[in-house]
Amino acid sequence: MPSYSVIIPAYNAESTVARAIRSAREQQPRMVEVIVACDGCTDRTLAVSEEEGAVVLDLPKANGSVARNQGARVAAGDLFFFLDADDWWEAGKVESHLAVHKEFDGSFVTDRSTPRKLDGSPAYWRGGKDFDGEVEWQTFLSHQAWAGGSSFSVTKENYWRVNGFNEKLQKFQDVDFWLRCAFECGPARTISKSYTNYRLSESGVSRKTESIEQNLSDLFSGWPFVSSEQKRAFRSYAFLLAAEFTPWPDSVPYFRKAHWPVLQRYFWKCVIQSFRARRMV
Length: 281
Hints:
The longest helix has 17 residues, at 228-244. The protein starts with a strand and ends with a helix. It is α/β, with parallel strands linked by helices. It is globular. Helix 8 (228-244) runs parallel beside helix 10. Strands 1, 2, 3, 4, 5, 6, 7, 8 and 9 form a nine-stranded mixed beta sheet that branches. It has ten helices and nine strands. It has helices spanning 17-25, 45-51, 64-74, 93-103, 156-161, 173-185, 212-221, 228-244, 252-257, 265-280, and strands spanning 4-10, 32-39, 55-59, 79-82, 88-89, 108-116, 133-135, 152-155, 188-199. Helices cover 38% and strands 19% of the residues.
């Protein structure tokens, strides 16, 4: 049985990090190392994490990719699991992943995720693929394959084979890692059951719309194997995602940068969500 480490990047997560740590420590088998990488925390995240028995890294403020990589550098496990400080796992997650890793020689393993609203109730969709099987790197260009940054596990060897997370990125950090890892190390393996609870947050990095162009430039510079057409399609999706959570008419510049793909179903979903966001302002 390989040893494993759970790496939790955290920024001012004193109200949620205890639940995340407990959901990791209660997994079977229990030979688990939990590392909380505090990304310049100014609240009690560090103290709460220590009280819960985690190894704590007190880091200067950078970003989640830096925190994950710093945690990985000190991790002792043969396998790395990543868990955001405001997410949590269901029982059986680690056991399920270990069983797949035992017979699977690919890049990484991911289960599905259940998005949770602020009141804890599930959203109407699930993240990730709804089948057990292999997926090629091209699949991760589509948002329908994204299960969330707390959903996957990867061997230490494969993690460092692609140099971990891209520390320049503010958005799409997990997508970038999955794509590069699946391209370099072979297909990923999906688990159809959801073991991961992903907390939706209006203030999360995934909802911020600043500096999208620079982020995409940094993202694409690490994808020499991705075609220009695939990059254009991904760029369009990135701006639709920004528009989805921006109140109308402030969302119009993002729709314009996405080139108004009116034939896409997701475009109309974003329009509707943008109008809903306007009513909530």
